[in-house]
Amino acid sequence: MRFLRGNWRYIVTGMLVLLLPSWAQASEAQDIEWGNLTMGLVGGLALFLLGMEMMSEGLKQAAGNRMRAVLGMLTHNRFVGLIAGALVTMVIQSSSATTVMLVSFVQAQLMTLTQSLGVILGADIGTTITAQLIAFKVTKYALLIVAAGFTLRMFSKKESAKSMGEALLGFGVLFFGMNLMSDAMHPLRTYEPFVATLAQLENPLVGILVGTLFTALIQSSSAFTGVIIVLAGQGALTLEAGIPLLLGANIGTCITAGIACLNTSRAAKRVALAHVLFKVMGVLLFVFWIPLFADLVRWVSSGAEMPRMIANAHTIFNVTFSLAFLPFLGLFGKLVMKLLPDLPEDSSRKYRVRHIDESQLGTPATAVALALSEIRRMGQTLQEMLQMAIEPFLNKSVTTDPDFPELTVEQGIQMRAEKVVYLVQVTEDFLLKLSREKLSKEQADEVTALLSIVSDTKRVANLISRNIMPLLGRKRLLTEDFMPEGKAEIKAYQTKMSKQFSRLNELLSGPNIGTAERILQKDSKYEKLEAEFRLRHLARCQEQLKSSLATHEVHMELMDQLKSIGFYAANIARAVLLARTGEKAE
Predict the structure, then answer these.
(1) Distance from C-alpha of 353 to C-alpha of 90, rounded to nearest angstrom
(2) In Å, how far from its chain's centre is CA 134?
(3) How many beta carbons lie within 10 A of that of residue 112, not counting itself?
(4) Cα(567)–Cα(500) distance, rounded to whole angstroms?
(5) pLDDT (tens digit, 9 = 90+) per residue, 312-370?
(6) C-alpha angle with apex 93: 91 to 95, nearest 5 degrees?
(7) Quick one: fold of 358-581?
(8) Rounded to whole angstroms, how far apart are CA atoms 539 and 557?
(9) CA triplet 583, 374, 370: central angle to 5 degrees?
(10) 3-state DSSP helix/strand/coil percent for the chain, to nearest 5?
C-alpha cells in the first residue's frame, strides 16, 4: 500500500499508456467513431496535462531554490529582470511558478512591484520554449523518453537525479499525450463540419474568444498551444486561424492566474493584475494586423512546416510585446497601484502577519522565502524590545514607550512580546504544514532550521518580558544607582547584542555563510567581553563601593540575561549554517 500511495501517478500513467492507443487507433476503423475519438482526445489531453505537471514539479524540485536566488539577485534592473524571468521560466518550464516566486518577493518586500514587472515579461518569453519543444517531431520517441525518466526516477539515489527523472518522465508523457491527440483527430481532417468550424476561427474575435475560454477551462496555455500545433500538423488549421487562438490563449492563462489569487494577498493580486494588463494590451496591439503578422511569421519561418510556424508566432508575439512594454514599467506600476491601492489597516485585529500565505505551501521555495521574511520582522521587533528594556536601567527618567507615550515601558515590552509570540505561533504552524509537503532534502533541512529559529526567537522575547522587566522593577526599588562605569559596560554589551540581531537579519536576507560565521566569531569575542565586565564589577564591589554593592545582584542578573540573548543569537546562526552547509558549527 505504501508503494501505491507514493507512486499512484506513475501507475495511472502506465494504465493510460496501455489502454489509450487502442482507443485512438479504433477511430480509423470507420469514418468517424465519436466515442473513441473523444476518449483519445480527452485521454491524450489528460496525459499532456499530467506530463506538464510532472515536468514542472520535477524541475522545480531540482532547481527551485536556486531559481529563487537568481530572481532575488537579478531583478533590480528591468532589462536584467526580463532576462532572468525568461531564463528561470525556461528552466522550470512554468510561468505560473515564476509568477508565484514574484508574488512571494513582492509580498515579502524583497522587491517592488515595478521591479517584478520586468520578470513577468521575461516569464512570458520563457514559456514560449514549451511551444518550440512541442513543435519538434519527437513524438515517436515519447515512450523511450518515458522509460528513461522512469528508470532515473525509480533507481537513482540522489534526490536531484530523482527530480530530473520525474521531469524527463513528464516530458515523455507530454509528447505521448500529444501523439494520442494527433491520432484521435486524424479522421477530422476530411470531416466537413469540423473543417468549416475551424475556418470560422480566422475571424479574430471568434478565435480569441475560443482560445481564451479553452485555455481558462484546461488551465494551461501550453496545453492549448499543443492542441493548436496538433491541429496545424494535421493540416486542419491555417496560420491566420491559429494566431487568434494563440492570442486568446495568452489572455486565458491570465484568467487562471486571476482566479488563483482571489483569496491571496494584495501583492499577489497586483502581480496577477499586471499580468492581465500586459496580455490584454499585447493582444490589442496585434489583433488589428493579424494578416501582416502571419506574413511576417511565414517570412521568418521560411521553409518550415505549419507546427513550427505556430510555435514561431507564439514566440514572436511574446518577445515583441515584452520589449515594447519594457520602457513603460514605471507607468504600469503606478497604474496597478492606482487600480489596487493598499487597504486600510484592520483595527479589529491586534496583531497580524504580513508575509505568511498558506496558498503558497505548494511551492516550497516560495513558502520558505515568506517564512524568512516573517522571521526577519520578528528579529526587528526583538531589537526594539532590547533597546527599550535596557534604557530605563541606565536612565531613571525613561518610563514610557518611545513609540506609544500612553504606555509604560513595561506595557510596551509586553505588547511587543505578545506580538512576537503570535507571529511565532502562526509561522510555526505554517512551517509544520510546509514540512508535510513534498520537499527536497535541502528544503526539508531549511524548514527544520527555521522551526528552530522561531523557537529561539520566542525564547528571547520571553526572556526580555519575563526576566529583564521584573528585574527593572527591583532596580527601581533600590536607593542607589549603577556606577557610571557599570552603566557604560551594560550599554556597551547591550549594543553588541543589538548588532548581533542586525547581523541575523542580514543573514536571513540571503545565503551569506560569511555573516553566520561572523556572528559565531563575535559571540566568542562577546563572551570574553562579558567575563571582563563581570570582573570589573566584582573589583568595584571588593573596593566596598556603596553603589556597586547595593546594585550587585541586579547588575549581575542583567548581564546574565544579556549573555543569554547572545547565546540564542549564536544558536540561530548555527541553525542557518547547518541548514545551508550541512555542517554543524562549533
Answers:
(1) 33
(2) 27
(3) 14
(4) 10
(5) 998 999 898 888 888 888 888 888 888 888 766 544 446 777 778 787 787 787 788 78
(6) 110
(7) Methane Monooxygenase Hydroxylase; Chain G, domain 1 (1.20.58)
(8) 17
(9) 75
(10) 80, 0, 20
